[in-house]
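chain and backbone:
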Amino acid sequence: MENQRRKEQKNNIVSFVPNGDYYFKKALRAIDHDQMDKAYKYMKRAAELSPNEAHILMQFGIMEMDAGNFDSAYECIHTAYSLEPSEAEYVFFLSEVSGCLGLVHDAKKYAEMYLDMDPEGLYCFEAKEILDYIEFEDDIEPFDEEDGEKMVAQEKARRFMENGRFPDAIEVLEELIETYPDLWPAYNNLALAYFYTGEIEDAKALLYHVLRENHGNLHAICNLAVIAYYEKSEKELAELIEILKKVNPFDFENRYKLGATLSLIGEHELAFKWLRSMSKRGYVGDSGFYFWLAQSAYFCGHVEIAENAWKALVEMDPSKKGLEPWQHIKEDVNSNALEQNRDVIIEKITSKYSAHRMFGFFLLSKSAYKQEIVAHPTWVDLSKYNGLEKLSLAYALNHQFNKNNKIEKHFERAMEVAEKLYEISGSVTVEVQYLFQMWFVLCERALQDSYEFKNVKALAAAVDYMFNSTINSNRITKKEYAEKYSISVGTLTKYVEDLIKYLPFESK
């Protein structure tokens, strides 16, 4: 009966998962209140969760167009049109975004189509304006219509990859390079999609093919460096870094790619050189640019520049407030601290044991590698996590928990115990990691039993005492640990008794 109760409680954790329609309605409410930053964020999330809902894609496409992101807007609106080709409004906006991109033939075609479908429609005046403009502006340079097809396909693949739908992206990109065998950006993106699905050799083979056919392709070299870094191929990475050090790109696109790659693989000085050179020349980047500039600046000592870059990022994406890569890094960090050991964190969060994964996410919350690890599509896999593991990941990402929700309240208290142990320990070393591992085994079982974790100091003292009493050949006393945590011996005894029942003994 007790096991059944625990199982039911475990299954009830984090039961509500918002869908696309939920975020779509939140976006509309935000628009009504003129909160356009929030509206954009919610509509983007709605489009990610509902990629086959034409009305959501349409609205997000319009917002992307208003923001000047015409490639993304075109892909969203074109997809909405392909889902519902009889919707006249979609046809008009497809004409408008085509005009924004210089796709003159498409702009004219869809404007005429709209007027045929709805001669007295809401946008009939605007459609006629588009046709008049095209007719009288004879000096408009025709845009290669093939470029429109390439752009739509690449934008669709990009969106698939952003949403973790790598098999879908692979399908689009494979068809694209078959049709356009010298479209090197598609090869580079396909190689990344292969890498993210574990097809490492296929990814590398494709990138070397690009370099044979398109000598010196910087994106291919950078992507090989990223793969070597993640695969810990140190010799290959060192050779690629030497090549990248000799590259002197002129255009912003290649400087951005080079700087972001170098920052990712830890070459912050050189990354800062290229990214800073762009901002000095007036480059106004996207949120990704300011992330890499902030990271590279901070880790090579330019703290003020890093902080200003992060401010620019937060202005673009307020959800990034408080998520600076350096936020939880102590200035006097122990060189042996596991929270700064990328390989240990990856090992923990990919473990087959739930308590290990929870511990791994706690380490991640304090790590300089947080953004890098979270961004990797195969290291963090929500589909494999139970409710407590999802809460642990949310904690690592600075999620604000709802104290009116009992489960979240109890979980947050459990993490406060871990924080107390961290405060006492100073860092998580190889020697002390087993204390934390013991705590996460206990707290996992206690949370499943709806334990309330009322006294944080006493619980930290109890697990510290229990751990050291099992590994220490010398006699230790409760008085010693009670004094260490400024509690009474009686209180310590009470919480030791509380925790003992959550030790993973075999039932008989």
Q: What stands out?
A: Confidence is low (pLDDT under 50) at residues 1-16. Residues 338-500 form one domain.
